[in-house]
Amino acid sequence: MKRVRTEHFIPFPPELVWAVLTDFDAYAEWNPLNIKAAGEPRLGGRVAMTFINPARPGTTIDQVVRIAEFEPPRRLVWEGNVPLLFHGRHHFELIAEAGGTRLRHGEDMSGLIAMTFSAATIERDFVPVYEKTNRALEARVAALSAAN
Questions:
Q1: 18, 12 in Cβ contact below 8 A?
Q2: Quick one: which of 4, 36, 97, 100 is 20 to 30 A from 116 by CA?
Q3: 2-147 homologous superfamily
Q4: In this structure, what DSSP letter does residue 118 have?
């Protein structure tokens, strides 16, 4: 199992962060990792997504993921699978903290493709994109809050 782990503080309440995370149709407007998404935010829901591929810059992956955990406004997990080659479990955990939200964002990956990723590859290629997504999420929440 290979793991990507990031953490970020967002100075807005979990409910506002959750609203942005579950608005899949708007991902193309702000999300640098999951650049396109369409689907219903609910447990068991299927969401068509286009991801950038951190392991191969300039390439994308189209996949339909299934929402495996949906606990508003606390936890969102989706899973994507290509039998034998790749299984990913992408997660967002929102923890109320000091007038804002502690975001824990990452992914657990397994399969033949994931086995080729070293710890150095994950740190160099994956973590920066996940951290960029965290900052973009904060900026999106801030922009929507300012507009209201």
A1: no
A2: 36
A3: START domain (3.30.530.20)
A4: -
